[in-house]
């Protein structure tokens, strides 16, 4: 069962690493999110966001193989994906590219809930 938790955290880590290519610039960000970033301040924010996702993705991948870190990684991952889904749903009107991100985050949420459940069961069992 521990290998299932590892696999789920690897999956969620990879999902979080996908936007890292946005750090390369406006063209890549536009391809990822289907938005125009004509303003330098927005480019700065979005490229920084890509770096933060990279950090979280790397942490999730590392924690996948470090059982002592898995609980905090699961919590961090859940906060990340659930907050994006909630913001997207509350704002609404998003494009197809953002819808793909929402779908990926829903998949990640399911994986994290499963990982949390299995991880808790492993910790509880004698």
TrEMBL record:
Membrane-spanning parts: 6-26, 47-65, 71-89, 101-122
Annotated keywords: Membrane, Nucleotidyltransferase, Transferase, Transmembrane, Transmembrane helix
Top-level lineage group: Bacteria
Gene Ontology MF, one: nucleotidyltransferase activity
Full protein name: Phosphopantetheine adenylyltransferase
């Amino acid at each position: 069962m521990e290998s299932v938790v590892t696999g789920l955290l690897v999956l969620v880590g990879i999902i979080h690493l996908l936007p890292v290519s946005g750090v390369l610039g406006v063209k890549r960000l536009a391809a990822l999110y289907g938005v125009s970033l004509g303003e330098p301040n927005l480019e700065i924010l979005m490229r920084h966001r890509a770096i933060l996702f990279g950090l979280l993705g790397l942490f999730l991948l590392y924690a996948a193989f470090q059982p002592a870190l898995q609980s905090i990684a699961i919590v961090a991952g859940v906060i990340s994906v659930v907050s994006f889904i909630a913001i997207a749903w509350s704002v609404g009107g998003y494009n197809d590219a953002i819808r793909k991100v929402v779908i990926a985050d829903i998949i990640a949420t399911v994986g994290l809930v499963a990982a949390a459940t299995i991880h808790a069961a492993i910790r509880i069992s004698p």
